[in-house]
Design goal:
Blueprint lengths: L1 E4 L10 H8 L5 E7 L10 H11 L6 E6 L3 H7 L4 E6 L2 H18 L2 E6 L9 H9 L11
Parallel strand pairs: 1-2, 1-4, 2-3, 4-5
């Protein structure tokens, strides 16, 4: 079984590494797919972002990292994924993601699995980590080991 973890995946977002680790307990392969959108400002250039994420998962052969353009559901279908994996950090995220999952299932037949990050990893927000990076402060203690 193959899953796609799409879109705004950010290696500095709290809980994403935890979500991937837990998702590997019920799927054979995860493709972390970074969306290409020239209108969106990002912390790093696409190649840097891809390299950083690949480095995080260098020792996990069941995780691959790629860029994609277009709709997530089209990309998931093109790589033979059975579902889209989405991380949820809070209740408002959950409500939005649940609605999007219902729309995707209705329009495309692709299922979405929603996973909350483990509570012990939710002690710092991704925006705080980005701010530390912007200020040139060390962030190693907040990154997955």
């Amino acid at each position: 079984m193959k899953a796609v973890f799409p879109g705004t995946f950010d290696p500095f977002t709290v809980g994403h590494y935890d979500i991937v680790r837990r998702a590997l307990t019920f799927t054979d392969e995860i493709i972390i797919a970074v969306g290409v959108n020239e209108l969106k400002h990002t912390l790093t250039e696409l190649n840097e972002r891809l390299a950083t994420i690949r480095e995080l998962y260098a020792n996990e052969p069941r995780v691959s990292v790629t860029a994609y353009d277009g709709l997530t559901t089209d990309f998931a279908r093109s790589v033979g994924a059975l579902f889209i994996l989405r991380g949820v950090r809070n209740i408002s995220d959950f409500e939005y993601e649940r609605n999007m999952a219902d729309i995707n299932r209705h329009l495309t037949g692709i299922e979405t699995v929603l996973l909350f990050s483990s509570p012990e990893l939710a002690y710092i927000s991704s925006s705080m980590v980005r701010e530390l990076i912007h200020l040139g402060k060390p962030v190693d203690e907040f990154l997955p080991q």
